[in-house]
Each structure stands twice: as C-alpha cells, then as structure tokens.
Amino acid sequence: MKIGIVISTTRPSRIGHRVAGWIASQAPEGVTAEVVDLAEVALPFFADSAHPKLGRYTEPATIAWAERVSGYDAMIFTVAEYNGGYPAPLKNAIDAIYPEWNDLPVGVVGYGWGGAGRAVTALRPVLENIKAVRVDGPALTFGTHLTPAGEFLTDARDLAVPALYADLAARVPARV
C-alpha cells in the first residue's frame, strides 16, 4: 500500500514537514509512506480551462498532480489552522482535480493550538463533496503533543497514528 502524506502549508516558517515526517515514520510494515510537499507541487490557482470534474487537465502541473494522487492508495492531510480554516494551498490542491479523489481514503491530522479543530471541521464538507472517504486521525495540540517549533513531546507517543493507518488500509478499495 502506498500513502501520500500531504504538507498543507507552504509558509517558510511552517512545521508541517516535521508533522508529516513524524506520521511517515510510524508507517506499518508493508506501507510506503511518501511525504508530499505542496510547496514543491506548486499548483497554479485555477489554471485549467475545463472544470476539474471533467478530468480533462491541460496544465502540466495539474496533470502531474492528478497522476501523483492517482498513484496513492490513500492519503493523509496534515492540516494546520489559519484564521479558523485550513490553508489555501490545500484547498487549491483539492480543487485542482476531481475524479482522482472519488473513493480515495483520506486521513486528516490537525495540528496547532486546539489541534486545528476548526480547520479540520471546515475540511469535512469539502471531502464529502469530492467523494473522498474521510478518516479522522489524531489532533496534535501545541503544548501537549508538540511545540510551536515542531518538536514532539512525550505525550505524542500516545496518539493513535497506527490506528489511522489501519483504518485507511481497511477502506482502500479492492483492486480488480
């Protein structure tokens, strides 16, 4: 099984790479976890002329993104919270393509003050609309699980990351 772990923010001061790496380090045997940095993906905003629902992409970045997402059995979004919502690069990455999300299990791990609870909640209807199979993961809270600089604390060991991987694996559609 191959899982993409998405870093949702592109800010220079971000800690998403630490969160994604920590989640990837807990991948069980038989799972390839690949960190996907949206800063490197560099999708333009609404560059394709056709509606994403049609799946007729013309922009090289969109085509590459669609192929990359299609190559995963599941994904995990590491979600930071910005002003009560999730980061615009994540929204753009979701909105740029459409059929590739259908029936794809997507785990959601929030991090920040309050575990990014408002951002994770705001993501729920978006994932439902694109027909992804949402799987809730742990919420990482500053001061309890990690520092604002991205250093993990002892209490982070108690989080259910292995259970998230198991839940994602159980929801991967059988291949014909």
Automatic annotation (TrEMBL):
- Coiled-coil regions listed in the entry: none
What PANTHER family does the record point to? CHROMATE REDUCTASE, NAD(P)H-DEPENDENT FMN REDUCTASE LOT6
Q: Extract the InterPro entries matched here.
A: Flavoprotein-like_sf, FMN_Rdtase-like_dom, NAD(P)H-dep_reductase
Source species, domain of life: Bacteria
Which Pfam families does the record match to this protein? FMN_red
**Record-annotated NADPH-dependent FMN reductase-like domain positions:** 1-143
Name its species: Ornithinimicrobium cerasi
Q: Which GO-annotated molecular functions does the record name? A: FMN binding; oxidoreductase activity
Q: What is this protein called?
A: NAD(P)H-dependent FMN reductase
GO CC terms of this entry: cytosol
Q: Membrane-crossing residues?
A: none
